[in-house]
Amino acid sequence: MSRLKMLVALNAIVFLSACNKSENTAQVSSYTDEPWELPKLNAEEKTSLVDSVQTVFREYYVNDFQKNKESYYDPYTETLKLNKEMDSETLLREAMKIFNKNGDIYTNFTYPSPAKCLSAHFYFDVAFAYDNPKDKEGKLVISKKYSIDTVPLSREEKNDFYNIQVGDELLSIANIGIEGETDEEISAVEGLKLLMKQASGRTDEVKKDQALQRYFLREGDEGKTPEGNFTVKIKRRAEGQIVTYTFPWMRYLNYKCSKKNEVSRIIDKNNLGDKKANIDPKLKPAYLPGGSANIVEYAGKSFAVIRVSKFVKDKENEIDEVERIKDFLEKERNKIDGVIFDLRGDYNFNNYFSYATSPVALASLFTTQDISYPNVILRVSDTNRETLANKLFINLKEVDNLDAFVFEKMGKYLNDEKYKEQIKNRSLFTNPFNIFDANHDDRYPKDPNAILYKGILTDKLIAVFANSDCSYACNTFVSLMKDYKIAKIYGTSKQIGGREINIFSWNDFAGTIITPRGTTKSIIPNAKILPKGSDISFAWGQTVRENARAGNEQYLGGNGVLVDTVYLETRDDIINNDRNIFNKIFADMADPKNSTGFYLNRP
Questions:
Q1: Rg of the Cα atoms in the chain
Q2: Distance (Å, rounded) from C-alpha 113 to C-alpha 37?
Q3: What pairing do the DSSP bridges indicate for beta strands 185-187 and 169-174?
Q4: Entry pTM
Q5: How does pLDDT run across 106-118, given as a tens digit for each residue?
């Protein structure tokens, strides 16, 4: 997590606690028949909503020049069609439509209470299995089942649930639970296409991955939650028998309206049950504080498989994950022929929170090159500059070189007559600047050339294996490992990641500060907290990958990292933790001819 995000989040705690007192509260995972509905907004709330959406895209959102070039969509122009004369439901839905069409994974609009307080789900996940290499479509199969021990299902429904096995093919679904779509039976793949229409993301691959993750999960802050029962037609993996089962959509009051907030999120997700993954004992990592590692023998060679779950310190033991990996590699480097980083994530959990320099420090273990954090650009505007000034005021007690630098640089642009027209047209952005020192809590030096752990393993084969759930720090780490020619990148799809950094909440930025005169003002000039718990998340900066080898990988957000080798999952991979894919990566690494082109004897 960048310093910008951390500081804003900390300051948000004070003023958001007061704003949330009137919110509806709920017990975690309390099943309910409450109706999903959008509230009626008064004239002031409508004005606040329209102004907020327009301000985000006019003053802060920096991806629109990329959007106009790649997607031919200008979200700001669309925001000008919003007005306070619309009825509440139309206004809210039109705002949501802009963010959906915009297609950035983390630039989103959240519906207000009570709609956002409801979720619906069932206890499956699905994935595509490509058992036949010639089958480009693949088969949609059950990939995970969750515990239903505490779920209010009938005995018959529980028996039916237990009869379905991981690897069984999902053929069709009736009542897919998408607002405005048919309740009739449709093929499972057709259902996926409907979900893709609602997904964010620049590419169809990212949208498909999101649709897979949400096949049996609906969030009320994105749209109407499903009601009643759904019926699935399943083809058993073992004997090929086709069976039909009916289950209820489980509708519940979620953590988003709970006073416990972050703690509730974790509890709520755990209530879905422990994931039933059958892990090959050879690949099962020995989990350690801050990370995990295991040595696997293959074709007479030894490879370290290192699982990175979060680029952060272990809070209880104050152990830094990068330091733990460094210690492991220093101890084992004479015994191993290469390293595989396993960065595969589970939805909403992998690498969302991190120290800004940890990906740089980790990548630096494998080269003597000077690796620096990716550069960032910001939009230049009076509103943007005043926001920075207000943020700087909040953090006067801390040394914040990043904010001070940007504040000063933005002022020079604004005071220069030759940029006046560009600023007026929203087309001026700062030159790229490095945010390596963006996190004041890091244990690493602010000078990227002074990384403590540089170049301890530069002559071994390095591979990175990731999937679409590669967020924030994970995305940064994979891009560095590729752009600096350290590792070969493997994935279960052509692109991974695509997540931007510095993702902020409007309600965080709209919070008030107390001036030296004792008066209050908002961090964003004249901004108000969005009505009834609605919110906007947006990218404050655009991260540039200046060493990227492909033109469509210029930015960290958007298309994501293009992998070097795609290994599609088979049904056996889904059941056995990608066993076949690991074996293929091991085979590539064990190849004496190095046909895959791993980078050896790196500078």
A1: 25
A2: 8
A3: antiparallel
A4: 0.85
A5: 789 999 999 999 9
